[in-house]
Amino acid sequence: MMSLIINHTLSFLFFLIIIGSILVVITDERDSGKKIAWILVIALLPVIGIILYIMLGFDIRRTRLFNARRRAFLKFFHARADRRIKDMLFGDTALQKVRPEYRELATLLSRSNGTSVTDNNNIEIITSGKRKYEALTEDILNARHHIHVEYFLFKKDRSSKKIRQLLMQKAREGVKVRFIYENIANINIRPRYFKEMKKAGVDVVSFTDPKFSILRLSAMLNYRDHRKIVVIDGRIGYTGGMNISEDYFIRWRDTHIRITGNAVSSLQYSFMTSFINSGGKIDGEFREYFPEQPVRPGNDILMQIAPDEPDDKWPILQMATVWAVEHARDYIYIQTPYFVPPEPLLLALKSAALKGTDVRLMLPQKPDSIYMGPANRSYYKECLEAGIRIYEWTGTFIHSKTIVSDDYLSVIGSANMDFRSLEINYEVNSYIYSKDIALANKAIFERDLGQCREITLHRWKQRPWYSRLGQHVMQLFSPIL
Description:
The protein has helices at 2-26, 32-44, 46-57, 64-80, 83-90, 103-110, 129-141, 158-172, 191-199, 214-222, 246-251, 263-277, 286-289, 316-327, 343-354, 372-377, 380-386, 419-424, 435-448, 457-461, 465-477, and strands spanning 118-126, 146-151, 176-181, 203-206, 228-232, 236-240, 256-261, 301-308, 331-335, 339-340, 358-364, 389-393, 402-405, 409-413, 417-418, 427-433, 452-455. It has 481 residues and is an alpha/beta fold. It folds into three domains: 2-57; 64-109 and 116-301, 2-Layer Sandwich (Endonuclease, Chain A); 316-480, Endonuclease Chain A (Endonuclease, Chain A, 2-Layer Sandwich). The chain starts with a helix and ends with a helix.
């Protein structure tokens, strides 16, 4: 009798926990599709679903954890930066050089944690991993004052170890080397790998908070540092899609940029935010980290560095992407390895195609994970029916994250076209307002079409029934991938 009462009591408590968890999801201020996906997970797998929601589902954007970090960094920065540095990062002089129809996009990007448009820039678009490796190693060797490195993935293969050795060598020479690695993404790398860097003088921090709590655990597991940033002597910057790995240097197709000019200071600002929020310290005179940039012939490119992070009130990269799609008149070409768009972006893409804009998507034929293929393709039918043209890259894997539109706007960065990048992760994109760069970016897209096959609606409707079923199932869970 007693055991029966205990069983009924436990069952009732378990029922209350499930109902309570579902109520928490329902009252969360987020996309309804994401709510439904989490309710399905909790209903189908109650114990596992609740644990996953605690670890991965809490929307802690704008909570005390992030607000306190943001306030602490801003207090530090504004105490150290002089008027010249603040004007370079947040002034509006260069904004007036942007075409009038794109100024509201630039203003939108600067509203949150982003910096303003900068001028006096030169950009090299890098589509070869070999070229990035060679340029980066040369710039590291030539560093004189500091090297700042922030990567989502920093592996232990031969090329990665070579860069690691160069960083350690420069630290021994007296160059200040600061290094951020994403803790969860690099969980298979033993701590000794990074401890050896510390012994050589590299200031290494992991992108986590050392104080443990459920909230911080959720932040560590869910809100990942997906950025790829290098700043050398405050004068040379790298950002884009390529991590430090031979997948990127040798095997995969990706896009990165090497920057000289005022935009490097914006990258520096983004790095400092991550480094200090991860427990690091910045010493020395600020003018050495934000030097005056020389004016050189050809350095006339307008550029804006736009970070997105849970510290911000608004998902700024999602808003900017929707703006770019909605305002494209002639064409908008997009490369992304992961296409699981939030509803506002999906609607904008279909609306643009229906009104006559040439909308093209390029995705990998062979994804790098077993579930991303069905997830990506679960959106093909409705996109094709709206007139969006879809191309699948037939090479090993394309990891490029780029947008080009109307021979003026280019976007190259770390953010994918999915919920995780546009709502959750720490990301950074570069928005480039330049006809020359747009034409170069467009030419790269058109060249890549030579290694793609186009997916037509007629052909797509003929796919096997089991493929359709798998794609429909994955679309249900796509908001939480």
